[in-house]
Structures are given as C-alpha cells and as structure tokens.
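For practice. Supply one:
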Amino acid sequence: MKIPVRMRRLRRNPGIRRLMEETSFEPRNLVQPYFVVPGTGILKEVKPGYGLWHVSADKLLEEVQPLAKAGVGGVMLFGVPDEKSDDPKRLSAQLAPLTDGIKRLKDALPTLPLFADCCLCSFTTHGHCGVVEGDQIVNDKSVELLSHFAVLLGQAGVDFVSPSDMMDGRVAAMRAALDGEGLTSVSILSYAVKMASAFYGPFRDAAHSAPSFGDRASYQQPANNRREALREVDLDVAEGADALLIKPAMTNLDLIRDARERCDLPLFAYQVSGEYAMIRAAADAGLMDFERAIRESITSIRRAGADVVVSYYARPLLRR
C-alpha cells in the first residue's frame, strides 16, 4: 500500500510523542485559588475532592509553602468575611483577614506572585458585585468603591489586583487610584471577559456570594456574544490592564484564541468551580479517569492560547 504521508510515525512510542509535543503545562502555568476566612486554625475543603479551600490567615503560609516550593505560578486569594455590610466604611475591617493573609505570605514568600480578587459580592448583604440602589447595580459609585478596594489590597502587598466585577471603566479608575497612592508597581489582572455563567455554583457556595435578588446579567457578559467579548478585551487593554483573564475557560476556548490573536498582553483563563466539579463528579461516577481528563482540559486551555490557567487542580497536583 502506498501512503504518501504516515502521521503515525510521529506517534510511534512515548519518547517520540513527548519530543513532538506542542502544548504542555508546568507548575508555573497554574494559579491556585484560596478563600480566606476569619478565625484561626482553619483549613477545610468546602466539599472533599472539589478543590475549594477555606483557610484562615494563620494557616495560609503552611498551606501555600509546598506549592511555592514546587514552582506554582501563584495563588489567587478571595476574601470571605463573616460580616456582610453595604456601608463602604466597613470595607477595610471586612478585608482584614484577607489583607493579613497577603502580608503573611509576602513576608515569607516575597517572590511568589499573589493575586487578590477585587469584587464586592462576598462583602455585601445583597451579594451583587457593585453598589445597589433600589434594584439597580449602579456603575460609577461601584467603580469608586472598587478602586478603594484595590488600593487596600495594594497597600497590603498584593502583586495583582484582580477586578472581577465587570463594571464599566473600573480598570482605568483602579489604575488612577493605585498610582495616586504611589502603588505604581501593583499590576491589574482584569477579568476582561466574565460570562454570566451557569458554572459558578460551587464557587458561590465557598465565597458566600450568591445574589439575594435577580442575577448578574446586567453586568456580566452574555455567553451568546463573541464580538462584544472582544470589545471588552479592547477596552481593558486601552484602560491600562497589565494582563487579561477570561472566565469560564472551557466554554470560551474560542474567545481565548481570539484574545491571544488580538493583543500581546499576558493571558489568563479561569477553569471555574463548575468546570472542575463536572470532571470530578464524572470521575466519581466512574465515567472517566480524573487525572487524564483534568490534564486534557488544562492542556486544551493552554492550546487555545492561555499563558496561565487558574485552576483548583494546582493544589492536588503539587502537594503530593
């Protein structure tokens, strides 16, 4: 049989396959999320095996140090206060466990990249990502408060503030606020594309951030719209973002590729809690091999163009 091209020659054995591998991921390509809670001595997985960890500030270093030693790309911290308040004057006190955790990690691991989420949903009584007046999420007042939030995180020592609120104009406002306080070295990792997605359920349980009324469709992006997503990317680049994030990752591989081809900023993608849980649940049901499936999913996100993947898999991979 005459076959002009035999592709299988390049797949013949593990050594050749490894040599020809185009896309892979290493620990440096992963960022592990944690949910920082008040109290002491707390290190608890919200649901065993599903990757979402509550940790108090005093346990954070013990938890993160092995990941840093293994070469993890960084950790992303989310504050989960025990007091909900709509009073902006309470924000600093609500943030105390998170800012304490940031300071402890930076003191002990000064070169480990630290990301901190900048959003109001876990802190407010209504659970929305901005300031609420009546039944409306008010954009400009939200941006003002979020900019103050970013400054508090920057003063604590975080490397990247990560606005996930999807308010208009917040990247430019945060940059101006940080620079105005002399925090010119603090970077902004903007959630440039954050869909109003069905895949955030486990996260909202961990962050205590489900909205008490309505939904987030008036500020998070509809999953139907590709051109609109690219406008969001362009705006955040123009406003001074240092890096961009797309969320969820696995349902937006086309947008990751679009963003990669459109701009040259570092590109992050968040493999969100529902995506991770879906693979975990399927594996628990005996439908697939968890390790193979999670690695394949992260590889596909990297192949689409993401430089870094925020994933709950970093901890189980690196703390072995």
Notes: The chain has a mean pLDDT of 94. The radius of gyration is 20 Å. DSSP finds twelve helices and twelve strands in the chain. The chain has one domain: 24-318.
